[in-house]
Structure formats: structure tokens, C-alpha cells
């Protein structure tokens, strides 16, 4: 993996995206030259529009999950991924094709050819990714430690959709007698760490132990490996890179203070606010017909009110009133005691189940976005009652309030529905990653993934 605009991107997926973008770009130019005679001058004139079209379409499908499959993907998963990509891409492809300047290239004759080419590439890539064998690029990882932390690192890598990260073994740490991993995967400690790295052709080292008196590993040995070109990561950095999380159990206040990220400068805030205003207004206008039908359905089934407002905690701990379509009975909390919502909550109406699954109930929050109380992307806003409870039980929970809460967020697209303190901890780890690394690039990626989540029903709340 490598960092792109502060976000970690799998190298193999990036290589596939780059290859498909170039393939589509070249295909458009070939299709144009077959229809017209103009030689290099024609190619030069069409190249900018062809490149923009190719990059936008392949990037869109990357965000929609086309490149997230792995060797264990079933035929159903592969077909679902391809169908989603085609359904989302074809209408957008037609729209973008008509907007871009093509000069003498006949759009009506060319758009069908280009769209068919796009569909063929997406279908081919969907099957290739779904039935992928060995990755294009492989990183060999040595884990220092043999205890629970080392086993958790190994399990995290086993859960990844790509096999590009391979654990070659576990190197015993100093003063660490716990052995949880398989004995046959533990490397002999009679050789130095650098010798073990060279013998097993290791690219990266993960230090997967808790700090103990006397140290977990000689700093000199780790420095020797780093100077030899081997990347060395601690647990916090590992989980941030591989899982898109800032793990609470591997986190220290000093890492938050001295580490990179968690910057909230005026330029970043201005760009984010401008993006929220422009995109939020456009989304509200486009969503008005759906919102009108939703209002009618709620009124017919369970009467008024159609909307409900509720106190939520925003940036800096300030309380605001969130606006949503009412999805529960009017007497959902008649005793006045706040409750976690659950996946199969019996307080939810029939219309409420539909609008929750499709997230239509969240659309009125676009007004909160335009008013500046929320952002399009950010941590989910919680009720003050639960914030007080979670802040007592979970370390660093208040860090998520350093940015505006969002209509959607990194936790919402990465973690399934949850309604317990343990679920809140898991979501906080994703929220901390977002707070640390948020950029316009990550916001756009999350918005695109939200479309995928809504269309596939993943993580429906």
C-alpha cells in the first residue's frame, strides 16, 4: 500500500485502475481513428477528453468496489460487483461523454462504441479480480512478537481481500514469553533480526508487542533493518494502513500529539465547506422528488409529523438539532429514556424500514449541511446522552468532535450496523482515521462508497 492524498491505497488495486484507465483511453482513440482520418493531429485533439473520460469512469468504479474482490469471491459476488458497476457507469458515461468536447468526432456514432468498450472492460476486470490468483506486487512481512497482538496482525492480513501482504513468520521479542501463534511459524532467534530479514527476503517489519520494561526489541536491530531499506511499523501505523483504523488498544496520547495528521487548518476547512455547500445544494434539489414521495408515504401510514428533530453533538461538543424523516412510531420513546436503535427495532414502521435501508431518512440532514451544522462526510453525530456515556467508557472518544459530524462517513461505509458500546469502539477507530487523514479526495471516495453501500444494502441501519 501507499499513501495517496493522505489515504492508504492498495498498490495492486491502483495498478489495476491505472491499467484499465490506459486501456479505455487507448480504446477511445482507436475507435475515433477508425471512424475518421486525421492521423496524429486527430489523436492529439481527442486525447485530453479521452483521458478525462477514462480516468473518471475507472475511478468511479474503483470507488464502487469493482477492484475490492479477492481470490475467495464467489460467482454471485463477482456478478453482483459487475452489475453494480454497469448500472452506475452506463448513464454517467453517456452524460460525461456528451459534456466533454470532442471536436470533429461524431458523438452519436462514437458514444455507443465507447460505452460498449467501457462495459467490456468493467466486465472483464470484475471477473479477473473476482477470480484473481497471485497479486501483481507482493510484500513480505516479518512480525515481531508471538502473543495476542502478533496473532491479531496475522488475522487482519488474512481478512484482507488481497494477498499482496504475506506474513513470512514471527520473530520472538525480548521479554515476551507469550506464545499464541503456531510454533512452526516462529523463526529461530539464534540469528540476528537483520540476518532473519535477509534470509526470508522481508520487505516490512511489524512490531506487534506491548511496551514492557527492558524493551521489546533492540532499537539498534530495528535501526539496522530500517537502514537496510526495510520498512518498520508499530501497531498503530499498521492498523491505520491496512484496516483504515486508528486502533484504541494500540494508541497513545503522544502518538496523537507528535504524529502526522489531525490538522484542521483554515484552507482545509474552507475547501470542505465550499464542497459541502455546492454538492449539498445540488443533492437537495435532485432529492426533492424522492423526499416528497417519502413525506406522503409516512403521512399515509402513520400520520404526522413527517419529520422529527433530535439533539445531537456536533463539532467542539456544541449541541444542534438534526432533521430526519420519521422512521419510528410517534411513541417510540414515550417514557423519555433514550435507547440505542437496533437493526430489527420493533419501533420502526414499514415505511421506516425501507427509508432506513436506502438511507432516504437521512436526506433532510442536507439542510443541516447547508446551515453549517454538519458536513456531507464526517463522524456520525450522536445524542448527548450517549456521548456522555461513551466518553466515560472509551478513551479518546472526544477526538471525533474536532470535525463536523457527517451525513455519511468512513465508519458508516466500513462497518456494519451496530448498537452497543463495543460497536461504538469499532466505529470510533474508523472515525479517528478519518479525523486524522480527511481530505477532499477521501470525502469523494466515501461519497462514492456510500452509493455502493446503499445499492447493495451493506451496513443498512
Compute the number of strand runs: 10
Largest β sheet strand count, sense and barrel closure = 4 strands, parallel
Could you say which structural class the secondary elements and strand pairing correspond to? alpha/beta
Q: Give the N-to-C terminal Cα separation.
A: 31 Å
Low-confidence stretches: none
Average pLDDT figure: 79
Tally the helices: 16
**Overall 3D geometry?**
globular
Count structural domains: 3
> What portion of residues belong to β-strands?
5-15%
Radius of gyration: 25 Å
Helical residue percent band? 40-55%
Order of helices and strands: EEHHHHEHEHEHEHHHEEHHEHEHHH
Side-by-side strand order of the widest sheet: 4-3-5-6
What do these coordinates show?
The chain is an alpha/beta fold and 461 residues long. It has three domains: 2-130, no CATH class; 139-243, Rossmann fold, CATH 3.40.50.720; 266-456, no CATH class. The protein is 52% helix and 10% strand. The strands form four sheets. A four-stranded parallel beta sheet has the order 4-3-5-6, sandwiched between helices. Strands 1-2 form a two-stranded antiparallel ribbon. Helix 1 (11-35) packs antiparallel against helix 2 (39-63), helix 1 (11-35) runs antiparallel to helix 4 and helix 3 (75-99) packs antiparallel against helix 4 (107-130). The longest helix is centred in the middle third of the chain and has 37 residues, at 266-302.
